Batch of 4 targets.
Target 1
Amino acid sequence: MKRLTVYCASSARIRPVFFEATDRLGRLLARAHVEVVFGGGSTGLMGRLADAVLAEGGRIKGIMPRFMQEEEWSHPGVTYFEFTDTMHERKAGLLTDVDGVVALPGGSGTLEELFEVLTLKRLGLFTKPVVILNTDGYYEPLKALLDNSIAEHFMSEKHRTMWTFVDEPEDVLPALHQAPEWDADALKYARI
Ligand code: AMP
């Protein structure tokens, strides 16, 4: 695991438990010499992730559309930045040359990013592990929804192996390493 993308929330109004988990994840990724790629924001879990990685001497890359930089939303300490014209280019950049993806708790932006990567994976266009950090049970409703989509045959049992839920930041790297193989042949079983 050389480089990981972490999807995270921009909200600063969330409970401390989410900040604490994000801090632990950022620090342990830095100590494991994993370069972190994220949305580049200075607020919410994005800001805390960057602070934690940098506090441990790690490397973190931000990818952000220019209009956000112009609003001065970018984190000032980030190792390096890539600026894009659109949100679509940002999302593509977040999936370029990374060895896996971690979704922390988040709102519409995080959920959109997570569902985009799962859709690309289903089509065999992204083949790396996807881990969802279920801090304090935040993602239990998502787990139930995904289970239901399989029960109702909108996806197959095979698709369940596209993601792994973990409860603690310490479980993230092991889950990434243990994730089942996935390849471009996924297109063959994308349809039910
Ligand atoms: P959410 O989980 O809804 O907070 O969405 C996180 C996503 O929102 C990020 O990946 C960005 O696309 C976007 N976003 C919202 N506010 C900011 C900000 N201050 N800095 C950077 N990205 C932001």
Target 2
Amino acid sequence: MDLTAIAKVKEDGVKALEKASSLKEIQGVYNFYLAKKGAFQPLLAVLKDLSSEEKSQYGKALNEAKTLLSELYKKRLKDFEKTALEEKLAQEKIDLSLPGRDYKSGHRNPFWLIVDEVSDIFLSMGFEIAEGSDYETDHANFELLNIPPDHPSRDMQDTFYFDAVHLLRTQTSAAQAHEMQKRLDKGPIRIISPGKCYRRDDDDMTHSHQFGQIEGLVIGKGISMADLKGTLDVFAKRMFGAKREIRLRSSYFPFTEPSVEVDVSCAKCGGKGCNMCHGSGWIEILGAGEVHPNVLRMGGYDPDLVSGFAFGVGIERVAMLRYGIDDIRRFYQNDVRFISGFEGEERRNGR
Ligand code: DAH
């Protein structure tokens, strides 16, 4: 039995570990001595030829040598790692006196603030929100709303077609037909559907070829104009102030009968007449009416059994009145100065 080979590996190993001057070097020493196929491996191979007494003596020496080198390796490794960390920290010194970086957070467009606020008002009255699609069919956008191909009311809206069948919806009313069909035989309907619509129009301070609407639809037994008026009165008061009154003026829409325009008393002058309401004391906010029997029928409902009301309110219109915005184009120009002006509103709404 020859223990000198073990002693030699041990001695050389200790020397090499002590001499190593970098993390890389010490890793190399580890691989040479302590890794699986390192210098101890051939020494282990000798074991099998020894007697059991020699084996225990030899094995003990071997283990001691290995443990010694391992411990020394770990210690030195720790030292190197510590030094490396210290060096890194020294290099990455943070200068706390430097001014901070200003992270700009965006703000929601007042368009969406109004959508949320209007939605909250109607949700509190038991309405559900139904999502419509900007991409629509002529059928849902016009025909199911009692507007056949030759109807004159199309003239104002015949605009963005993809093909003979598909178009960019011209009114959120297109959601009515879908919801009626989807909810057939599932009890009364009480929905609002906010979204964008598109139609040829002047692009000026009060008109845009793209704008938002919130559609409302209620269908059930015995739903009357009184329900429409009561619901919209609550909406106007919650949206524009408890003192606001509404008035209904007779109007025409192909999908409602009777049809009305709904005005709200001017918030600025309280109804006396001022520049905001053009002297009338009233500001028009939406169109509405009792759902036309043809629309009910086409949606799968029997007008002798159920009735309903519908309304469509312009989102920008409401936002302009609510926040005193003078030009509809501001909603789409993406000017941060404009958008940031509504930061307070955003917080007030808790969003
Ligand atoms: N769709 C109408 C428009 O774009 C607005 C409207 C009027 C919607 C009356 C309705 C309604 O649901 O009953 O001008």
Target 3
Amino acid sequence: MRTKISGVELRRIAMPLVAPFRTSFGVETSRDVLLVRVVTADGEGWAECAAMSEPRYCSEYVDGAQHVLREFLIPALPKDGLDAQAVGRVLDPFTGHRMAKSALETALLDARLRGAGESFGSYLGAARDRVPCGVSVGIMDSVPELLDAVEAYIAEGYVRIKLKIEPGWDVEPVRAVRERFGDELLLQVDANAAYTLADTQHLTALDDFGLLLIEQPLANDDMVQHAALAKRLRTPVCLDESIESAAHAAAAITLGACSVINVKPARVGGYLEARRIHDIASAHGVPVWCGGMLETGIGRAANVALAALPGFTLPGDTSGSHRYFATDITEPFVLADGHLDVPTGPGLGVLPLPDALDEVTTSREWIAL
Ligand code: NPG
């Protein structure tokens, strides 16, 4: 079904975080988010671009994403309209820029699904109406501070804890969390590419703690080295940054570079590619889970829908809105019994609240087609 598009609004919002979030690649204190709103003959569609302020997690960054959308991706959309499922093919001649592409495709899918009265979850193939939620815990100044934070998240109901690690903050915090909260706690770690293969011996110390997985221990393009490391560790290796497409996922599985995949739709160019990764992983018996990038309610809604697919067998980084923001731009996602409900309304099932959105808006531009 072809949808005629009249234009796209690119809107920037500034969202202060409730607490600084530190990873091995930097500290976030506020989220500078690019929102995409498409206006089509079917109605409007919304999406959130996951690119961060600086190109540290990957090469994309929010000013660059807005630039490539304005100058290349939006002008490439055919004037007489297109099927939202064909967006990927239309944008394919432009290399990279997956986060920008993902936002444009998602907004067009949202418009189409809202027009058709179908939810994003139903369209993607969701198999449940709520998803179990984990929480990602940043690097802290001290172990007692970390234990307090983990205790509070467990009290809120989070069913799985992910600790950010880096050289100098790995075995000790993991041991402390295990000793304090016991062996039953679902626990995993995320290095964001902070180690090299020379650290193998050191990383084997983590094998004693019954972790669900170690995420992205080595550099993004170290696929072969990840395969070598995976042979030496008992802890399952999960890839995040290394997997930018279904082709990468297939290669990683074939190589033995990972036995679990963190699927972040923005990182792989959109929810349709994310579903392809889910399908490939499922066919190989490789579990996947849904990552997060400090999304507002708009991005969170789409992630929760994806996390409801049958192959997402591990809890995701699909935390409640208040994990990051005092006030969200949508109705907040609130944890109930450690789960979030999959939105059931048409499209993403949530919309920005106009007043909350205006309050945090820092700029808007309209690109007519
Ligand atoms: O809960 O939304 C969330 C964040 C989960 O740790 C998280 N995200 O490396 O997975 C990651 C990390 C991240 C955050 C990556 C921001 C990139 C940007």
Target 4
Amino acid sequence: MAEDFDVKMESKVYYPDPSIKETVRMGDYEAVYNEFIQDPQAYWEKVANELKWMQKWDKVMEWDHPYARWFVNSKLNITQNCLDRHVHNGKKNKVAIIWVGDGGEERVFTYRQLYREVMRCANGLKSMGVKKGDAVCIYMPLVPEQIILTLACARIGAIHSIVFAGFGTQALNSRIKDSNAKIVVTADATIRRGKRVELKAIVEEAVVNAPSVEKIVVLRRMTPPMELYSEMEVDYHEMLSDIPECGPEVMDAEDPLFILYTSGTTGPAKGIVHTCGGYMVGAYYSTRNVFDLRDNDVFWCTADPGWITGHSYIIYGPLLNGGTVLITESTPDYPDAGVWWSIIDEFDVTIFYTAPTAIRMFMRMGADWPNKYDLGSLRLLGSVGEPLNPEAFEWYYHVIGKERCPIVDTWWQTETGMHMITTMAGQPMKPGFIGKSLPGVVADVVDKNGVPVPAGTGGFLVIKEPWPSMMRTVHNNDERYRQYWTTIGKYYTAGDLAVKDDDGYIMILGRSDDVIIVAGHNIGSAEVESALVSNAAVAEAAVIGKPHPLKGEILKAFVILRVGYTPSEKLKSELIYHVRMSLGPIAMPSEIDFVDSLPKTRSGKIMRRVLRAKELGMDPGDVSTLED
Ligand code: WT7
């Protein structure tokens, strides 16, 4: 399998300055990993004991394949660990959140301020009838209120379902319906590159045919304030209670904390369910050790809380550790290509965590931009979401990190909740390779029967043992959950193809399914296809990922038109616009080909693999199941 990918196994090795290994918490990777593997449960128990629990567990873990229960019968509230713990332990006036707007505006929340706002918001939600176990959909721009709402839900035991504000009507509607959200919270608009982008208008359309929704809460940021129409709409500030006190709801470790949708191979997006106890331990642990987060750090993760990266490494992980996080609504190239570097300079950001797509974009814009600014505050760099190609690694390492900062390329998924594979700071780094299992995780590369493949041979990436922040189910589709653990032996199948080198360093080769990763965002081909087919002109559609120098992959659609429609450039634009409106800009096909037929199996399944091979001029491989 590896041959198909033209894998270059030799890699340059960068040996970090020995002082890094000596100072970071997990400098002695081998020793820590050994400690874990000797007694996994004792290892995780030690981590859990660093946090506050209302009642401790009877048992660290119970494993009834494929179902795990972690910290059995313990009680907690994650916000008590994110807020109360710090406020009552000398961090009242420490900065929790620094927000920078699209036009450079600033807002700062200390832990005390954040704590009070969360409790006011929690009381507000309660007054609207939100109770433990109810779902709240958060469709917000990247402003502090997005985080406040998330924590407010957790405070009262409501299940948050954050939907990235770049998604369109159809995508939002299906997520609201699947989660059964009682309340949808949004803002009038977000500001991108100086321009207002409407959000509430999308919500208005998305709640049609979503009978669970009782109220829409609107954060009005613009002047003059947008009018709120029906009885259904409530102003965010009016919802907030005057009472800044709201005790934490007692949650069982296995109570759901949130649902987060991620694209699947087939059918609609999957609602990944994470629970309170295990997720808390995983987010806390990985932030603390992979980023080595310290009290005087300023941590900037450029994701949006609408993705798992934002859940774990903007909101929960850093706040569980009492850290300072920076967030921004700004885009990396507005007002100019230096804006992000100016933010690092201005706020003395010490840890910077971004996606390869962004790094490649910065590379293209040239080193002059970062070189204008003082990036001396940086001490650790991170990457996530898609393979960090060696060229991008080199640029990040030399131009941004000035050969001083270790790079942690972190492999994980919405489903895993936390980092699973990386090269811990202080360890030798190999551009192109992510690294090894985090202590606490047992990852491997195996064949389809679950047998480990030798170094240099491609195979399937699996996780062999349960871990605290693993997803517990797929909302409304437990069968789909079971598939993750029953496809390759009894292991968790990640859906990625990978290869190991002689030192056990893992390289990701790509997905083994039809999930396409565009600019670090997971897009299911099936979702885009069904959006296309919902247009009156389209009879059938197939969508594939096509390699792209900047975005990793772009979407290419093959479309069969219905009788009566003729191919034209105008129709192409119409179809692209149609997908944009229903799924959002991130799912827009970059190319459309009109075709007369699609390669299918005899059972009628579209063979996207064949389309992809043809498009790339490659051998389509085994086509014995092809219809003709
Ligand atoms: C898929 C998961 C985890 C947060 C963002 C994406 C790909 C993720 C890496 C990496 C190569 C990566 C995988 C994975 N991926 N991180 N460091 N190197 N590929 O979360 O949307 O759930 O997507 O993203 O293919 O399966 P997600």
